From TrEMBL:
Superkingdom, natural source: Bacteria
CDD domains: CheD
One Pfam entry name: CheD
Organism: Enterovibrio gelatinilyticus
Family according to the record: Belongs to the CheD family.
Protein name in the entry: Probable chemoreceptor glutamine deamidase CheD
Record InterPro entries: CheD-like_sf (IPR038592), Chemorcpt_Glu_NH3ase_CheD (IPR005659), Cytotoxic_necrot_fac-like_cat (IPR011324)
Catalytic activity annotation: L-glutaminyl-[protein] + H2O = L-glutamyl-[protein] + NH4(+)
Amino acid sequence: MHKILELTGCPIGAGARRFFHPGKQMMMVKIQPGEVYVTSERELIATGLGSCISACVWDPFIELGGMNHFMLPFGDSDNIEGWDPTQWRSNAARYGNYAMELLINTMIQQGAVKSRLRVKLFGGGTVMGKQANIGEKNIAFIRNYVQSEGLNIVGEDLGSEFPRKVVFDPMTGKAWVKKLRGYRGEVEAEETNYKRRLANEAKRDDGDSAELF
């Protein structure tokens, strides 16, 4: 069983962006910013990260796992500078909070047990410039969140100035990370557009080597 969801709550067809990876000899699913994917099938989950964060979570007992991809929805630099990472239940952090809760709750609904969950964290780079500081805020948010929830972190690759490609095996918990030194501008543009869309939605609501982890 597999399920892919947008953080807006709109489901996407589970076959979207699924393709066969000849190097790994298995199917791979690519998720985009604002999506969560949970599966118990023999397949990989991949995404590209700049300042965004992906949490890779799995229950090794039942071989079920998933990945999310989120950016905190700050409208401008003043919001970012004034944000307190300990207030992860606030409206300012609702997308990051929702991404984690949607991933974990979906896994529990499919038979996972929270105390058995293992977590690996990736992303939070400074690809949007140090003045934005989004990557650092995302790292502070996710570390506070997992500590508050009592989740077991077994690996992480956070920070740095380069975007990443992350590939996750949800059955074994293995994850491969490749730093994308030549794609910084492209990832920055994608995340800037995504950040702008999140800010607009909030306004409407309110009125080149791989590393194994």
